[in-house]
Amino acid sequence: MDARYKSRDIERRSLDVDSLKRSFLEWLVYSVGKDARAATRRDWFHTVALAVRDRVVDRWMDTTRSYYHEDAKRVYYLSLEFLIGRLLTNSLSNLGIMDECRQALDRLGLSMDDVVDSEPDAALGNGGLGRLAACFLDSMASQGLPGYGYGIRYEFGLFEQRFENGWQVEHPEQWLQFGNPWEFARPEVLYPVQFYGRVEEFRDSVGERAYRWVDSERVLAMAYDTPVVGYGGDTINTLRLWSARATSDFNFGHFNEGAYMKAVEQKILSENLSRVLYPNDATEIGKELRFKQEYFFTSASLQDILRRYLQHHTSFDNLPNKAAIQLNDTHPAIGIAELMRLLIDQHGLRWEKAWEITQATFAYTNHTLLPEALEAWPVRMVERILPRHMQIIYEINAKFLTRSKAKAAGDNARLSHLSLIDERGDRRVRMGNLAFLGSHKVNGVSALHTELMKETVFADFHAEFPDRITNKTNGITPRRWLKQANPALSELISSRIGEGWISDLGQIAALKEKADDVVFREEFRRAKRKNKKRLAAYIARQTGEEVQIDSIFDVQVKRMHEYKRQLLNVLHTVALYNEMRDNPTVSWVPVTKIFAGKAAPSYHMAKLIIKLINDVAKVVNHDPSVHDNLKVVYLPNYNVTAAEIIIPAADISEQISTAGMEASGTGNMKLALNGALTIGTLDGANVEIREQVGADNIFIFGLTAEEVNDLRANGGFNPREVIASNPALKRALDMIATGAFSPDDRNRYQPILQALTDGGDHFLVTADFADYCRAQDAAMQLYRDSEEWTRKAIINTASMGWFSSDRTVNEYATEIWDVHPVKPTHDGEGFR
Ligand code: RUG
User: Which residues does this entry mark as bearing N6-(pyridoxal phosphate)lysine (predicted)?
Assistant: First the structure.
């Protein structure tokens, strides 16, 4: 190699301050095309990202090559959402060059914070499910597991939330507007994805009945790859996202007819497939485009997986030993029928063999029991869009129902529950049932959720396949959610117990004994205070509100949903406001109630609750009679970046869903890891958090899942009676009803009051109110004793080792995927 290129090559991989600085200057000029004097902050962000990317590429190729040479079994994580957030700090931190980069920028007169803040937040997900996928990518790479993420490269991520007069207003989120320096476009990695058309039957070469899908419309899926940097920078995995492209033959047909506009329209329509992320979380709205998105990315991913497999193999017998495919929720469940189609129609396998391979390859994660979130697509629509798949689904169903135990027992009710087709009303394909049947393992995401799966939605499947359901309690990556988001606390922790916790969070248990160390407690408080100052400044910038650093930062950040019960929190806020006004001479512990979270644009009730919180904030924050002892803020546009600022500063973590309704939660884990004390119901992973931190270090309240179930089964309860018997609740509701917070529109909150009374209070807000207030009071009392509070906070942080996504991913790897770490060989030469 020419010496000049060789030295540049070395430079590209060097991690010292001088090389970084030289790379920045070179990239700024030759790639971003700017002069240092004219460069904007965004230019510098692109420059730094490109220089960092350079330092990743060789190792990325080494990793990929090692997987290839070892013919390692890979795991493919198929997810409609990856909520990755910003990548610059993540990459620098995982590569271990954060300080070097800061110094290099410093020498150029630039601030690292400004550069970091210029990166858009990649919001390719709605909430917990998408963020879990992103944490799993980090954990797989950090542990050297051959893991690939597959999803959609949405041009528009989750909408940007703004408030207009306290109402949520959605704006498009254009994260790609100025380009994305992390991704590599792969115009050569293109797969056709078919829609519509019809199925033709014919006889194959041995005279067997066979099928082909004809007269379909085609769209191309084009790959974009993003390197996923594991901790330590040894393993760099790949996130492959698909973008829709119109096929050129499709266009030319129209051009020949002279129908130029029609051709362009068709192109736009095909490319709409990857245009926008559906903004619904835990509820489905059943739109055709959504179904097409699901098939689009699943089909492209499966074609890509088979192509990779066929580089090493000539028969499919070994596919389950070389590929594990994890379905993140039912969104990619059509993949079961698609793999059957590819194996049978394209590769000539017999049904039984194809089915055996499919089941052994797929596994499915369920994330919700809410009936409205369990995808069920109209048979007529599936038939029209994917005619061959509908046939395959019918056949899977027929074979299964014929052999099922329920059939043997003549139990028709059970048979109809097991069917892939819901025959009630307009017939629908139950994607959960398809995913269950086509997988060798099915998991829930917390112990409670998994038990409820067995008892409720999948009870009949569980009876049929008692070994299939398994639990994999969710986890979070300690790299992003402690090391990066909370440098103050993570430096303190490392100074006492070393850095081992970063890649082995179990080690954080060593902090438990420090809970009794008065000096450590003081330092722990100092770190929290620093984070609270940072959040207070953010609150002031975002809302104009000044909050007291010494107040309790009581945080509820998550998607806005009735089952998550932000309403319960705001009712307590109003009750507390009244108490403070009634008792002005009491020395109150100041409280700042902090809310953040988006509502699905069509979810009117959720949007009304946001407006209520903002209306309550307006009154409370400007009432001199509470002497600033109570503040309420609703931070707009909650996303990963905002979470990284809010979570480290929290004193209280609100995890107050109606028991039995939150599958797991992961915000609960992030907040506890950062030393917040949980006020929560026995729901989702809260149950396991209590086990880990101990019942004395968490404020549990409310009905249990079993009690909720019994209450509902016995015809519900009478919320009016509950309200009448609780003066604080009655007064809060009366104020809302009479327009105390909405003088401009006294009836604004009628729908909320109606839901809580005549509507039967489905989410049991009134039923849990009294006990919730008790838990809140207990927390406020404890906060007065700052030593005791800090002791419990430290125990919370120290007890969260088990909630690392490294542990979760390891359980999947050993118990579901049978995938093992591969150590990449770095020969220092790279791969050009
Ligand atoms: O609501 C659940 C959370 O409880 C859970 O922690 C998260 C990750 O497992 O998934 C959330 N979820 C469920 N997001 N979408 C759904 C339904 O499609």
Answer: 670
Give residue 265's pLDDT. Answer: 80
pLDDT at 123 over 60: yes
DSSP character string of 589-654: PPEEEEEE----TT-HHHHHHHHHHHHHHHHHHT-GGGTTSEEEEEESS--HHHHHHHGGG-SEEE
With 80 as the cut, is the pLDDT of residue 2 above it? no
| Active-site annotation holder among 46, 240, 558, 565 | 558
Cα dihedral sign, 89-92-98-103 = negative
Q: CB under 6 Å to ligand 1: residues?
A: 127-129, 132, 281-282, 329, 367-368, 373, 445, 474, 662-666, 684
Asked if 593 contacts 714 with a C-beta cutoff of 8 angstroms, the reply is no
Q: What are the chain's domains?
A: 14-70+87-120 (no CATH), 71-86+121-473 (3.40.50.2000), 478-703+765-800 (3.40.50.2000)
The closest of 493, 477, 489 to 534, measured between CA atoms, is 489
Active site residue 521: no
CA–CA–CA angle 446, 452, 458 (5° rounding): 115
Statement: residue 832 has pLDDT above 60: no
C-alpha dihedral, 778 to 779 to 785 to 786, nearest 10°:
170
468 counts as catalytic: no
Catalytic residue, from 358, 450, 573, 666: name it: 666
Query: Residues 297, 331: contact at Cβ < 8 Å?
Result: no
Mutate to test the pocket of ligand 1, among 557, 559, 661, 664 (most ligand atoms within 8 A of CB): 664
For the segment 9-32, the average pLDDT, to the nearest whole number, is: 88
Residue pair 659/563 in contact by the 8 Å Cβ criterion: no
666 is catalytic: yes
* 688: Cβ contacts below 8 Å, ≥ 6 apart: 446, 447, 473, 802, 803
Task: Kindly name the residue from 240, 468, 611, 670 that is annotated as catalytic.
Answer: 670
Query: If you measure from the C-alpha of residue 366 to the centroid of ligand 1, how many angstroms do you get, rounded to a whole number?
Result: 8
Q: What is the pLDDT, as a whole number, of residue 830? A: 39
In the reported structure, the alpha carbon of residue 610 is separated from the centroid of ligand 1 by a whole-number distance in angstroms of 21
Amino acid at 31: S
Say if residue 36's pLDDT is above 80. Answer: yes
What is the ipTM, given to two decimal places?
Answer: 0.99
What is the C-alpha separation between 788 and 138, in angstroms, rounded?
35
Long-range contacts formed by 378-383: CB under 8 A, 24+ apart: 378/286, 378/426, 378/427, 378/428, 378/429, 379/421, 379/426, 379/427, 379/428, 379/429, 380/426, 380/427, 381/288, 381/291, 382/291, 382/429
Testing ligand 1's pocket by substitution, the residue of 132, 281, 368 carrying the most ligand atoms inside 8 A of its CB is 368
pLDDT of residue 1: 44
Tell me, what's the pLDDT at 282? Answer: 66
Mean pLDDT over 88-113 rounds to 97
Q: Please tell me the distance from the alpha carbon of residue 822 to that of residue 208, in angstroms, as a whole number.
A: 43
Residue 494: closest CA among 477, 517, 478 = 478
- What rounded mean pLDDT belongs to the chain? 95
322 has catalytic annotation:
no
- State the Cα–Cα distance between residues 769 and 19, nearest whole angstrom: 60
Asked about 347 being catalytic, the answer comes back as: no
d(CA 430, CA 437): 11
Residue 469 host element (H or E): strand 469-471
Residue 369 CA to ligand 1 center (angstroms) comes to 10
The enclosing H or E element of 123 equals strand 122-124
pLDDT tier for residue 831 given thresholds of 50, 70 and 90: very low
CA distance 633 to 653: 15
The per-residue pLDDT for range 449-494, each reduced to its tens digit, is 999 999 999 999 999 999 999 999 999 999 999 999 999 999 999 9
Residues paired with residue 630 on neighbouring β-strands, in sequence order: 591
For residue range 333-368, list pLDDT tens digits in order: 999 999 999 999 999 999 999 999 999 999 999 999
**Percentage of the chain exceeding pLDDT 70:** 96
